[in-house]
Prior knowledge:
By secondary structure, the protein is mainly α. It has one domain. The protein contains two helices and no strands. It has helices at about 1-30, 50-80. Helix 1 packs antiparallel against helix 2. The model has no long low-confidence stretch (mean pLDDT about 90).
Amino acid sequence: MIKTLYKPLGLVASVLGGVLAGAAFKQVWKLIGHEGEPPEAKQPDRSWGEVLSAAALQGAIFGLVKAAIDRAGASGVAKATGTWPA
Length: 86
């Protein structure tokens, strides 16, 4: 029963986490000294190194935010109900 109730909560948290991760990535990109928007793979004026490093950084940030949100959500449900939503 807990697992069924947790799914909609997890979905909402994931969407909000994606928005948060996107904003965090843009801020980190600016902090490490890059001006403007992060590069996209199909931009011809960007180097391979810049595109691939931006993609790696973005993936790491998204993974970190997803894991943190998933863990916090499961932990909160466990505290509220006494059951881990696995």
